[in-house]
Amino acid sequence: MPKVISSTELRNSYNDVSTWCHHNNEPAFVTKNGSGDLAIMSIEAFDALQMRLEMYEFIETGRKDILAGHVVSARDHVASLREKYGL
Fold first, then answer.
1. Given the DSSP bridges, would you call strands 35-40 and 28-32 parallel, antiparallel or unpaired?
2. Assigned domain for 49 exists
3. pLDDT range class, residue 1, cuts 50, 70, 90
4. Does the residue 77 lie in any domain?
5. Both 33 and 58 in a single domain?
6. How far is 76 from 41, CA to CA, in rounded Å?
7. Do 33 and 45 form a contact (C-beta atoms < 8 A)?
């Protein structure tokens, strides 16, 4: 269940909110004047999210290459590496 807190609660209970974010490895959503304003998370959760997004970008690049026909068989690729590096 997402944690939703007011900006006042964040200001008054920062340590508790920080502990919750670290313990649950999830963002907390902060409201300001009753409307959504911010999402806060631990550095560890942010780094994991960034890595996941980078992985999705690599997968999407590969998918586009496949759809465009930019593919080489594994056997041909290994042969080209052996030739290039004299293996």
1. antiparallel
2. no
3. confident
4. yes
5. no
6. 45
7. no
- The identity of residue 5, as a single letter, is I
Please check whether residues 37 and 63 belong to one and the same domain: no
Q: Work out how many domains the chain is built from and give that number.
A: 2
Task: Using pLDDT thresholds of 50, 70 and 90, give the confidence band for residue 63.
Answer: very high
- Written as one string, the DSSP assignment of 6-20 is EHHHHHHSHHHHHHH
Residue 59, token pair as written in the block: 């997968």
Instruction: Answer whether residue 46 is part of any domain.
Output: no
CA–CA distances in Å: residue 28 to residues 2, 17, 18, 34, 59: 7, 8, 9, 15, 29
Does a structural domain hold residue 71? yes
Q: Which helix (H) or strand (E) holds 37?
A: strand 35-40
Over residues 8-49, the pLDDT tens digits come to 999 999 999 999 999 999 999 999 999 999 999 999 999 999
Q: Which residues contact 82 (CB under 8 A, 6 or more apart)?
A: none
